[in-house]
Structure formats: C-alpha cells, structure tokens
Amino acid sequence: MITALALTGLTLVRGERVLFRNLDLTAAAGEAVALTGANGAGKTSLLRAVAGFIRPEAGTVAFLDADGDAIDPPEARAHGLHLLGHLDGLKTARTARDELMFQSQWLGHSHKGIAEAIEGLGLAPLLDLEVRKLSAGQRRRLALARLIGSPRSLWLLDEPLSPLDARWRAVVGEMMARHLHGGGLIMAAVHDPLPIPTRALDLGAGR
Amino acid sequence: MSPLRTALTVLFRRELSLAWGGGGGPLLACGFFACLTVLVPLAAGGDPAGLKPVASAIGWVALALASMLSLERLFERDLDDGALDLLATGPLPLEAVFAVKAVSQWLATGLPLALTAPVAALTLGLSPDLLPLTALAAAIGGLGFAFTGALGAALALGARRGGLLIAIVVLPLFIPPVVFGAGALERAANGMDPIPALALLTAYALFALSLGPFAGAAAIRNAQS
User: Fold this and answer.
1) How far apart are CA B82 and CA B58, in angstroms?
2) pLDDT in tens, A163-188
3) Residues of B in contact with A90 (CB under 8 A)
4) Which one of A5, A87, B128, B206 is most buried, by most CB atoms within 10 A?
C-alpha cells in the first residue's frame, strides 16, 4: 500500500515545451494535494507522469510503503493507484452496471466497496441504463464509483468535481475525507477548490 | 478466485462482448467476405472452370481483407474514451491485455469467418471434399491475422486516418499466411499432402502469438505517453 509519494526535481517536457522544472513535492498518508494553474500549465501531464504514462525529462517519482521502502513504480501502477481523468473510460453502449462491475473488478474490487459505491453515489436507479443515456454528472458519479469499488490508496484525479451539482460535490467531498482519514492520498487537478482541506501546488501561468 | 484470475476473466468477458456487440462485428466481416467471393465469379463471367485454378488464392485474399475490417476499433476506441488508461493501471501487464484483445478478435471475427469460408469456397468453385480443410486452415490463419492485425492496430494508434494506415502496415504481414493457406488448399486439390503447408501456417500463427503481445504493448505505451 502506498503511504507516501515523493517527487524530486521533476521536469516535464511536452514536445518542445518545458511545462515545469525541478518540481519537488512530498505527500504523506492522509494528505490531499490540489494542483492549480492555468490551462496548459501541465496539471494533467503531472498526473499522468505520476501514474507512469509520461516519462519525465529529469527527476523521479517515488512511492513509499508503510516501512518507508520504495515500491516499484509498475507495481504501484498495477495495484496502488487510481487515475481518473476527464476521459472516464466508460463504454457508451454498455449498461452502467456492466461498466461499474468491470471497472471495479478489473482494478481489484471488494464486494463491500461496490455496494458502498452504489449506495453512496446514488447509482442504484441508473444501473440498468446504457451509459449513453446518462447525463454528464451521472456519468461522473459512475466513474467515481471505481474509487470506492476497488480500494487503492493513491487517487490521481483530474477535475473530479466539474460536472457535479452542489449536492454531489458535498457527497464526493465526504468520500474523499473518508479516504484520507483511512490513510489514503489524493492528488487532484482543480480549478474550483475541493471541499476538503488541501495543500495547494500552483503550476503557474501556462500559456 | 485470485484477483489476477478475476481480472483476466472480466477483461475477457468485456472484450468479447465489445467485439460481438459493437457495430455488427462478426456479421459485418462475414457479409463482406461473402460479398467479395460472390463478386469474383460474377466478374469472371460465369465460367467456373476458368476460376478453379485461382479459387483458393482469391478465397484467401478475401479472407485477409475481411479480417482487417474491425481492427480499427480494437484499440482506437479505448484510447479515445480513456479506457486504455484504465486497462494500463490494472493488475495485468499490457502484454496480457493485448493478448486477450487479440484472442477475442479471433473468437469474434476469425472463427465466424472460418465458418463462412467453406461457403465462400463453394461459390468460388472449390471441390466439396476440400471444405473441412478450408475451414481448418481459415481458423489457424485467422489466429495469425488476429495477432498481426492487432499489432498493426496498436502501431496505428493516434494516427490520423488510422484505418488506412493499419491496412498498409498489416497487409504485407498477411502475405505469409495467405501463401501458406492458399498453398495448403492448392496441394490438397492436386492430390498432395496439405500438412506441410498447414504446419507452416500454424508456425506463422504461433510466431504472431508469441511476438505480437510484446511489440503491441510497446506500441500502446508509446501512444499513451
């Protein structure tokens, strides 16, 4: 289980453009980091670099377990983290139930977690609908369900709350607070502040 | 069940349902295959004797073309809707994800095409004795088509007009199975033993099966970065 995340001297380059240089950050269990910055500042790229999809130009991403030992990044990716971007990976032609079950089971589910997700995110009336029939907010709730359905400690979220209304923002905020309380970590790219205490990391102006 | 087994099972079920369900899948490929093989005798002017020497060759070319139809969807859709990120953060390595997708492609397209192949062979004027061999060769060749085809689809990820690119990448790689497959039928039609050609066809399928996942996974990682 990932209990700490350490970025040291991270430099990300996309094409010819340097997004940021020498970024240092450590986050421990129970902490949430809110990434802010203008469009194009590199918030999404940073999340993808932490998840191992983008190779940094310089610097390292390290995951630590409870004993302070480093976890192999492929291992962390396969078992320890969730990446939820603005693309939610839901197949429009399948039912919400099929997709919820697939996403949770694929990532390593717990039966209790899936039931909790359905209950907490109010998904029960949506389960038999095709994903294409869901509204943007309903889709987002369905995508967020995998965070609860398969327990993993590091959540990498890209604008997790954007299509949700005030009520569900509060619910998801409580979800996040519970996750942090249970020893989880959250790193989220946001424009609006999250409804939980966060540490801010500003990536600057972008272009 | 262990988490790995569960992951493998749910992925396989999802891939099969997407391959069978999404946009006609096997029906489309089989229809295309049948249309092509009906067109050729019509174009040749209704002289079955003239067609006979090239019947197995035409059949295999049509089979290769029909096998390519649904390749574009194989990874492109998952890349576009973010599902490929989800698949890459699962417990199975991308190589295994690739293999599961290619096997599902074979089950959903290759095997139905192999069942259509005897019908196509009849329209092309092949002797009825050869029909079981036709289906068997098409099934083995289809496995090779599925893995090399999936590799082509992975290489074309993110490219504009990916479908066209897949065809250009994949068709040259389809030459060996077409040669061996048509060769097996040709030998059997001339009273010779088709086993050597079938063995070569199987060797090609196994080669694609063992190398495809590694090359394909590398191509997917590249597309995701």
Assistant:
1) 39
2) 899 999 999 999 999 999 999 999 99
3) 81, 83
4) A5
